[in-house]
Q: What sequence folds into this?
């Protein structure tokens, strides 16, 4: 009788041990992770799990369970058994984005710019007063349809913060030092952004231009870069920034912009 009792006790002990192990495994597999929000440039450590990956490393990269917030946006972080979303918010809010509703009519842009005074309208270019660090906004139209937008910022006051502002939002792709221009593309790869240094009076300004990009055409980027240069030349309130002051600013911008890919 004692023998059967011992066997029964042993069986229950073994079963309890397996049940306990199974519960731990299920608990590990059933862990849930809350979505998080962090600021661009910050990091977040995932306290458990392994083999984490990011669906969009340009927004949030990950290495050894440490997430780095690269650019603003939302990315899914996942491994074999769990996932969560990370939202990256900007550290720099230098100016409000211009209207980027390509194909919009002048009246729609005017509605978008509610609260800003129209400065001029000639040669299919409409300019408005700025806000925050933006000195002015400019919009270019073809056949009364919006083709590109631009923002004018005082580069002497905001050179480093402007570089940080753009890097939080776009990916740098090339530099044209001879013409004082930097080129970016957005994460969705459907818009090109150009930063060009210009002068007005004795002040060096940064002109940031936004133009749609069709990634299905490999030649489009080259064509658009040339087109963007032409669009910049149409803005008669700015001139090429071939000055010693501009040379110093472009060195600062280049150092900042080439530090991150």
A:
């Amino acid at each position: 009788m004692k023998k059967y009792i011992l066997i029964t006790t042993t069986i229950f002990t073994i079963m309890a041990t397996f049940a306990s192990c199974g519960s731990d495994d299920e608990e590990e597999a059933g862990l849930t992770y809350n979505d998080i929000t962090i600021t661009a440039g910050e990091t977040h450590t995932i306290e458990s799990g392994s083999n984490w990956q990011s669906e969009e490393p340009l927004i949030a990269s990950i290495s050894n369970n440490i997430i780095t917030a690269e650019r603003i946006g939302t990315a899914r972080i996942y491994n074999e058994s769990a996932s969560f979303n990370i939202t990256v918010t900007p550290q720099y809010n230098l100016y409000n984005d211009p209207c980027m509703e390509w194909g919009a009519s002048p009246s729609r842009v005017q509605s978008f710019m509610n609260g800003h005074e129209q400065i001029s309208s000639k040669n299919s270019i409409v300019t408005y007063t700025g806000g925050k660090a933006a000195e002015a906004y400019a919009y270019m139209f073809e056949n009364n349809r919006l083709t590109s937008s631009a923002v004018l910022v005082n580069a002497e006051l905001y050179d480093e913060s402007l570089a940080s502002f753009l890097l939080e939002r776009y990916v740098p792709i090339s530099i044209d030092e001879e013409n004082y221009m930097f080129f970016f593309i957005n994460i969705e790869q459907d818009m090109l952004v150009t930063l060009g240094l210009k002068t007005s009076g004795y002040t060096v300004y940064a002109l940031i231009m936004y133009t749609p990009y069709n990634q299905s055409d490999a030649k489009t980027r080259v064509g658009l870069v040339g087109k963007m240069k032409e669009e910049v030349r149409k803005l008669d309130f700015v001139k090429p920034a071939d000055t010693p002051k501009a040379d110093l600013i472009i060195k600062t911008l280049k150092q900042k912009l080439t530090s991150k890919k």
Summary: The first strand starts at residue 36 and ends at 39. Residues 1-28 have pLDDT under 50 and may be disordered. The CA atoms of residues 200 and 238 lie 5 Å apart.
